[in-house]
Design brief:
single chain; alpha+beta; elongated
Amino acid sequence: MADENTDVGGTIEDEDESSDDPNLQLELSAFRAQWMSELKPSSGASGTSDKLLRAKGMKKTQDIAQEEKATELFLRAVQEEQNGAVYEAIKFYRMAMQLVPDIEFKINYSRPPDADRGGGNYMEDNEADGEIEDLLTYFEQQLTLENSFPKICTPEFEVTQMHISALPREILMYIFRWVVSSDLDMRALEQLSLVCRGFYICARDPEIWRSACLKVWGRNLTKIAPFKSWREMFLQRPRVRFDGIYISKTSYIRQGEESLDGFYRAWHHVEYYRYLRFFPDGYVIMLTTPEEPLSVVPRLRTRNTRMDSVLLGHFRLLQETDNQTKVFAVVCKKKEEKPTEFQKNRFCRRNPAPETEHSFHVGLSLSSGGRQSFSKLVWIHHSCHITYKMTGETVVTAFDLDKMYTPFFFVRVKSYTAFSEHPL
């Protein structure tokens, strides 16, 4: 037994002594050197940059995938919350915020939750410029996806009184017609459409725009072609504007009389204005005066003006074959009741002047000037018609259109549409 132990101990000692073999030490040193060289980064700049770019690309891809997953979970939570499943919504909210803590501020709420799964027609990837072609259809789809019985709008904060969203759509449309009013304030309707998606849908109601077109071009208007909608017709077809006034300014130098001593001759600078105010029912007001627009424009807000020199009449639009829209108007002075004149002396006989009626016929060509559409009226005709009541004879005097007939330019006046007297 002792010998066997001695042999075993000798064997172990031989193995320990064999570990000091110089060849084995060289191999170990070479292995360590190669291992250390592989662990050290490459000394080449191109290799380092490629590795960094690959690492950044992989990290960016991972972040994008993680954010997309968090977005999907967050939108799923929103949908569950709208359906009343609060506990399910909390679970998805927690999972989304574990992936991306600030996902609430990165998410795009303008896209419905089922856009990725349902293959919506208005995905952002399909729009090259980031805009939506048919915003009306898009909003209608959103309201339908959010609720099976969609409301026009919902209150942003809690209210204790009746909210406008509780009104039926028919009453809302009647309110919208009051906003447009009989003055055709379509600008106010467009501003009202910016409130929310439901108001945008109501403001695009075809019946409102159809009523506005019939009021401008008459009851004989039955076809939309070549326009796609009544709104497009109202915005693009040439027409006069009713939310302001057309102003023409004329100025010239006139030579005066020579002084008594012949030493000098006076020159006069003459300046006056012409005003044209159109109403949707075909009524028109025309005024020629040297007064500045600041004092005249407020007095022409309604047709019941008290200015004596004003001319009242009617106008109509005519579209010629050359695709030009012309405005023709007939205006005359206000009729005043003359007081009865008593004859002071029965022996005095005076022949009364023949009773006449004066009317002015005006023709204008409608065009666009500057940034505003349908803002310029150019003179094409002006004449005076004198009718004798006794004989019925009419004398026409046409005026030469020289440089004194400067074109009219439109100026918007906010006070003209500040109040609504009648609905559309």
